[in-house]
Amino acid sequence: MVRPTKKQLLEIPRALLKWFHRRRRDMPWRSTRDPYAIWISEIMLQQTRVSAVTPYYLRFLKRFPSVESLARAKLGTVLKFWEGLGYYTRARNLHKAAKMIVREYDARLPETAAELRTLPGVGRYTAGAVASIAFGLDEPVLDGNVTRVLCRVFRISENPKDDAVRETLWRLARALLPPGDAGDFNQSMMELGATLCLPRNPRCEECPIQPSCRAHRYNEQANLPVKIDKTPLPHFTIVAGVIRKDRNILIDRRKPEGLLGGLWEFPGGKVESGETLPEALRREVREEVGVEIEVGEEIAVVHHAYSHFRITLHAMECEYLRGTARAIQCDDVKWVSPKQLSQYAFPKANHKIIQYCQK
Q: Among 43, 49, 221, 236, which one is least packed by beta carbons within 10 Å?
């Protein structure tokens, strides 16, 4: 069993905190003690770079400065302010959680990690981060950066995604916590992984805990954590139609559950085997919104990657022929002017099409 030595338990927190207080990056969520703002930042930072999160965080808090304002907002408005940040389940869960906090916790974020984990979208990591940073509780965190640091410091050569190994990492993260200073220590571990203990070419010569790192001692830091071969992402060909009727364009809203739930899009879908692009588009539009169209020229091709698959999206000009647009395989439909498209939250892959429509 991997165990930290008494020396590591003493020197790692001391060296990391000293380094962090001197070198930590300036981030807007580090200048607040507001639990709500810290919670928002932790949700946004899930699987997203700091540089991408910062403008969204500032804009989101300006529009929704309190949990009450977030709970009162319509989901469509929340999604619009999240538009482009990706992983939209996070936004939907934030909205649900805000309503739950107002309803069950008198509009005050719950303080304990156990209570925080009852909120939609809050797992073990986020609960630990909010509990330690916002409320000063001695709770550990374990994200990708912390995992990498621990695997190197303790020379863990097993797959960190295995359940038993992951529990070992959580145990190590908790063992290293300096009582009463868990918030800054957790941030220092994440900061170290983000700035020095990098996945490739780690900057060991600058690392404040290099003397305690077993991987560095054996020159194995480049090989840890162990890398598991990734399965190639599946690829799908998608068609979407800019369907025009008079001067308006037809859009539909995805059902709230599932990928990109609650976002608006141009009608269309996946091309089946043996179909041409126009054939697929006519079929998808008929099945999705119940209208017949004439397919015209291709206006845009968009390549986009999601977490578990890739798409090539072919957008085509279409003319409405007949039928009443209705929500058959979607949540809602609207005829809107090109200028009005900016009022609705669309997936990032649709933004190029919107730009074309608004020329």
A: 49
Asked if residue 1 has pLDDT above 80, the reply is: no
Position 229 scores a pLDDT of 79
Q: pLDDT digit string (tens) for 64-77?
A: 999 999 999 999 99
CATH, domain range 235-357: 3.90.79.10
For residue 29, the SS3 value is helix
Do the beta carbons of residue 328 and residue 308 sit within 8 Å?
Answer: no
Q: What is the separation of C-alpha 127 from the centre of its chain, rounded to a whole number of angstroms?
A: 16
State yes or no: is 206 an active-site residue.
no
pLDDT in tens, 85-143: 999 999 999 999 999 999 999 999 999 999 999 999 999 999 999 999 999 999 999 99
The C-alpha atoms of residue 60 and residue 54 are separated, in whole angstroms, by 10
Domain boundaries, given as residue ranges, for the chain: 6-223, 235-357
Q: What is the pTM of this model?
A: 0.92
Q: Supply 84's token pair.
A: 């482009």
Q: Which CATH class is domain 6-223?
A: mainly alpha
The confidence band for 302, taking pLDDT boundaries of 50, 70 and 90, is very high
Q: Which residues contact 187 (CB under 8 A, 6 or more apart)?
A: 20, 24, 30, 133
* pLDDT tens digits along 261-282: 999 999 999 999 999 999 999 9
- Work out the angle between the directed axes of helices 35-44 and 89-104 (0-180°, nearest 10): 160
For 256, the token pair is: 């709230």
Of 11, 42, 158, 206, which is the active-site residue?
Answer: 42
